[in-house]
Write a structure and sequence with these properties.
about 75% helix, mainly alpha
Length: about 140
């Protein structure tokens, strides 16, 4: 629900602002809102204490830049060119691809909750792809 609301709001304001400006504010508000929840869980993290190996920092940077910043930077670009329902469909399929790759390379295991999540994501994608814009709906259908 929150993500759908986010897509609708950003669809309305994306023509007025550049993707960099939109993401700058989104990341700032996300950081401020999640900080109180994150402090208790990460205060003893090896990454923050400086005791992690150098490769952990490299991996964290790659994930932060490519999986987060770049992906969210491209969302407003996509919203300018295609419908929000299509953007939502591709975004909803991301966790499926990620989970499948993680299981395939041995970084994760297949558990009972993954098929349930798969069914829910596919159902969400089905709802998104079968919805029609108000202008596409013919009277009487």
């Amino acid at each position: 629900m929150f993500y759908a609301t986010y897509l609708l709001i950003t669809r309305a304001i994306s023509p007025r602002y550049s993707p960099v400006t939109m993401m700058k504010w989104m990341f700032l508000f996300s950081f401020v809102l999640s900080l109180p929840l994150a402090i208790p869980t990460v205060k003893d993290s090896p990454l923050l204490l400086g005791t992690a190996p150098a490769m952990a920092y490299v991996n964290m940077g790659i994930v932060a830049i490519f999986a987060t910043v770049l992906a969210y930077y491209l969302l407003p670009v996509a919203l300018r060119r295609i419908r929000p329902t299509t953007v939502s469909m591709y975004s909803n399929l991301q966790p499926l691809v990620t989970a499948a790759l993680a299981i395939a390379v041995g970084q994760d295991v297949f558990t009972w909750n993954k098929p349930i999540a798969l069914i829910l994501v596919i159902f969400g994608v089905f709802l998104v792809t079968t919805s029609r814009a108000r202008g596409d709906v013919r009277p009487g259908t």
